[in-house]
Amino acid sequence: LNNSDLKLELKEKLIQKIDTVINDITTITGIKEAHSLFHYSKVKPTWDNIQAMFANDSDLLSTSVITFLNQDNNAIALSKSRMTTAINEDGVEVYSKLCKALIHEKSINDVSYKLLLQSIPWCYNNFDPSLITTERMKVLIESNKVQKVVAGYDFLRLNYKDLNVQLIENAPDKFIEQVDQIVFDTSDMELLLSSSKICKEMKFRFINSVNESIIVNSFILSIFDSSFFFISCTYLFMKSKVLHHHSVYSSNPSEY
Q1: Residue 34 dihedral angles phi and psi, to the nearest 5°
Q2: According to the model, what pLDDT value does residue 220 have?
Q3: Which candidate in 33, 58, 66, 140 could, as Cys together with 145 as Cys, close a disulfide (CB 3.0–4.6 Å)?
């Protein structure tokens, strides 16, 4: 394949016919030959090979590499090894650009997409919404690729409405610790309180931390949801008891 005297057409025919798999794509000197090897899955599925081709293509996922990634056997093999967080001589993570490209690549099929996410060592709080569908964002949340922090929640709230609550469902303990920084509206609270993934005790903790007007508005809508209705009623009853208790004693301070 590195013989410059052979025409590319002949090399492609050879690539299609031979069973040999190239272990290290960097041993192939011609970029067109390398693309052909990926196109016909004649390259060992390793992240080193994917990264090498990605770098050669100016940090872009070429059509041949995407074709390679969309083969189930290649995606499965790659999913079994995690990309490293090693940095290069410039202090940049070697695989950082590749990971972001994979996350935002629309042409990768759904099966391969889920598999390849298993190899990405980072999670993020910001994405390009124009390149990621709602369904893909759900997969990213389920695969723990969205940071469970306020910034991640806010990104989803502004760009993928309702998925912000799905993020909370994945880690309610983490978000209750940051609840004073979280913005809730009525629809957020409705989804949170009707969630089957968050226990009632945790729901009460969230309720006690938000503006009462949100709960009142949610209460009106919750009449159609029995579990949500019960929680909202209980909260409002408890709130009224506390306010009544406070007003009785504050009007007669000498009785303390």
Answers
A1: -65, -40
A2: 41
A3: 140
Query: For 22, which DSSP code?
Result: B
As a three-state string, the secondary structure of 82-137 is CCCCCECCCCCECCHHHHHHHHHCCCCCHHHHHHHHCCCCCCECCCCCCCCCHHHH
Q: HSE on the CB side for 230, CA within 13 Å?
A: 5
For the chain, residues with pLDDT lower than 70 are: 2, 5, 211-256
What is the distance of C-alpha 5 from the center of its chain?
Answer: 48
Q: What is the pLDDT of residue 13?
A: 85
Separation of alpha carbons 132 and 112, rounded Å: 15
Q: Which two tokens stand for residue 227?
A: 């579990």
Prediction pTM value = 0.82
Q: What integer pLDDT is reported at residue 254 of this predicted model?
A: 32
Strand partners, 93: 87
CA proximity to 140, closest of 157, 154, 122, 162: 122
Q: Are 103 and 69 contacting, i.e. CB atoms less than 8 angstroms apart?
A: no
Dihedral sign for Cα 115, 107, 104, 157, please. Answer: negative
Tens-digit pLDDT profile for residues 71-87: 999 999 999 999 999 99
Q: How far is CA 68 from CA 78, 108, 124, in A?
A: 11, 10, 26
Secondary structure (3-state) at 3 = coil
d(CA 154, CA 29): 47
